[in-house]
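Q: Study each token:
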Amino acid sequence: MGPQSDINREKRAVILAYHKDGLSIRKISDKLKIPKSTVHDAVERYNRTGSNADQQRSGRPRVTSNAEDKSLVLMSKRDRRRTAPELSADFNRAHGTNISDSTVKRRLRSAGLFGRVAIRKPLLSAVNRKKRLKWAIEHKDWTVEDFKNVLWTDESKFEIFGSRRRVCGEQLVRSL
């Protein structure tokens, strides 16, 4: 069995219009450059169902409803620092279901919310800004030789049990 040719509703409408005008399946196929079997199937489906709409497809049913999807998005937006495992645990507890972390991520992505890693940056409060400005003013006349006598250190934070920087629910917004 070869690859199936799937056509959209508009193309099926064109096929049916040509068929009602009396064109043969072969002529419709040649004119639209699609396989004869596809034209035949579209005509047969219309004769059988009276419609050219897409048929219901098989597949695994969704675990969450639209209302539950909205609930997940709301939970994420209320606390943007919550991770997918935290969201799924709270959701499962509240709704008595068992959805996976991957499902939570998919539902949030479909709502335009994407996981991001929080950037590391110093918190500059008004007090810190004043202290920095005061320090800069006090040392504005220092020479390179003065700064060579300063011992510069760097502090690093190490997290043994995973990172708390990865968060779900950050909305991707591009501003110019």
About this structure: The domain at 66-120+165-171 is CATH 1.10.10 (Arc Repressor Mutant, subunit A). Residues 124 and 130 are 10 Å apart (CA to CA).
